[in-house]
Write a structure and sequence with these properties.
By secondary structure, this protein is mainly α. The protein contains 2 helices and no strands. It is elongated, with a radius of gyration of 36 Å.
């Protein structure tokens, strides 16, 4: 008779090391979050300062560019219609 004995091996984990690892990971995450918050604050402050120091506020710049785009679109439409009228034998308007 052959008897097979299976040995049950267990993993022994040093809970102090696991706890230390978890604490260090949490501390590192906290430091990273504080670092990101400080960096975001610095970028936000610099952006506000840049906008405040502008000669023309961004809203006015956007409005002026929008007006230019509308005028350019109208001019392009008139030029296209004028060229189309010339090719069709009509007089320009």
């Amino acid at each position: 008779m052959n008897q097979h004995h299976q040995s049950h091996r267990t993993i022994e984990i040093d809970t102090r090391l696991v706890t230390t690892g978890a604490v260090l990971t949490a501390a590192g995450a906290a430091v990273a979050c504080v670092g990101m918050a400080i960096g975001a604050f610095a970028v936000f402050t610099a952006g506000r300062r840049m906008i405040r120091d502008m000669d023309v506020p961004p809203t006015q710049q956007a409005a002026a560019k929008w007006q230019q785009a509308k005028e350019a679109s109208r001019a392009g439409m008139r030029a296209w219609q004028s060229a189309s009228d010339v090719h069709n034998g009509s007089l320009p308007r």
